[in-house]
Amino acid sequence: MTTVELTRFRVRPEQVDALLAARPAMLADFRADRAGFLDADLVRLPDGEWLDVVRWRSAEDFAASRVKGANRPGIAAFFAAIDSVVSAEEGTLAGGDR
C-alpha cells in the first residue's frame, strides 16, 4: 500500500527562489537514488509555510530513504533552503492508489 510522507516546513522569503530552483534536482536525485519513490507535490501555504507531499511504494521504502538523508547534491540543496520543519507525518493512501 502506498505510504505518504507529509512534511510541513518554513522557508524565509529570501530562500524561496533557492528552494524552487533546487526542486528539480532534488526530485531527480530521489528518482535515481531512492527505491520506491513514486512522486511528490510541493504546496505553497500562507505565511511562509510549505507542504511537501511525497508518495512511496511502501513504509519500508520511506524508512530507507530517511536513513540516506541529504546524501546527494540536489537533495542537500533543497534541504538547505528550509528554515525549519513544522511537522512531519506518515500515513497510508486511502481510497485507491494514484
UniProtKB/TrEMBL annotation:
InterPro entries listed in its UniProt record: ABM_dom (IPR007138), Dimeric_a/b-barrel (IPR011008)
User: What's one Pfam family the UniProt record gives for this protein?
Assistant: ABM
The membrane spanning regions, by residue number, are none
Where is the signal peptide, in residue numbers? none
Per UniProt, residues of the ABM domain are 6-66
Q: What's the name of the protein?
A: ABM domain-containing protein
Organism for this UniProt entry: Micromonospora costi
